[in-house]
Amino acid sequence: MNSLVQTSVRIAQRVVLGAALAVLAGPVRSQDAPAPADPAAQMKSSREALAKWVETQQILAKEKKDWQTGREMLQSRISLVKGEIADVEKKMQETSSAGAESVQKKSDIGHEEASLKEAATGVAARTAGLERDLKALVPRLPEPIKAKVEPLIARMPADPEHTSISVAERLQNVVGILNEVGKFNGEITLATEVRTLADGKPSEVRTVYVGLAQAYYVSAGGEAGIGRPSENGWTWEARPDLAKDVQHAVEILQTKAKPAFVALPVSIQ
């Protein structure tokens, strides 16, 4: 476009220069020059040259206007393309950031899964240890609490390493047993049981359990004794001398007598 404008300018300059030379050449006369031309012809020639010049100026003005319009359109397109490029770069950066964030999240999830697996392994091992300890504790439990937790004991897997029972279910079972045993150990429990007495016959007795550590019984015939836990179950010792005190304690627990201090022997092992 610049070359076209320059070409038009050169054409216009030549035309104007030719017209000017034609006008100036009119009054100059050489001694040997031929007779001056007709003034009307010279005027016509000048008008034609001037018309050419005006036409050239119009062409130049149009070319300049077209060039400016084209330049503005080109600049507008360039600005638009730059904006599109900026948008694309922004989206690429956002995509890159999202990809990096996704990779980081995936890595965090992987670490979390590994931590959970490690924790689950530890919980499973701890649960298996608690199950073994509870099974070893069963013989030392008094009959009332043993009967209560036996269904839970039966739900323990025979082999903790190879079982289809989930760790969560096993742990819930262990917690249930510990809650029942802990509750019994913190209370004084009165139970009605059948026990073989000195005459070798089974008789109904009232037994007072002091937690898991000690127990006292008394029969309707006045036979009494003390019971203590051992590895093979509870052992019972006849103590007829305690019949009155044990009977008093039973009546207090049955609310048949007023609360009072009752002295009974305790053996701590």
Please give a structural write-up.
The protein has five helices and five strands. With 269 residues, it is of the alpha+beta class. Among the domains are: 118-185; 188-269, no CATH class. The longest helix has 99 residues, at 39-137. The model is unreliable at 20-33 (pLDDT under 50).
Summarize the structure in short.
This protein has 269 residues and is an alpha+beta fold. It has helices at 2-25, 39-137, 143-154, 167-185, 243-253; strands spanning 188-196, 202-210, 214-219, 224-230, 233-238. Helix 3 packs antiparallel against helix 4 (167-185).
Keywords:
alpha+beta, 61% helix, 269 residues
List the helices and strands and how they pair.
Elements: H1 2-25, H2 39-137, H3 143-154, H4 167-185, E1 188-196, E2 202-210, E3 214-219, E4 224-230, E5 233-238, H5 243-253
Antiparallel strand pairs: 1-2, 2-3, 3-4, 4-5
Helix pairs in contact: 1-2, 2-4, 3-4
Largest sheet: 5 strands, antiparallel
What gross morphology would you assign? rod-shaped
The helix/strand class is alpha+beta
**Any idea what the radius of gyration is?**
59 Å
> How much strand content do the residues show?
5-15%
Alpha plus pi helix count: 5
Please give the number of β-strands: 5
Distance from first to last alpha carbon: 114 Å
Q: Please state the average pLDDT score.
A: 82
Low confidence ranges: 20-33
* Sequence of secondary-structure elements: HHHHEEEEEH
* Estimated helix fraction: 55-70%
Order of strands side by side in the largest beta sheet? 1-2-3-4-5
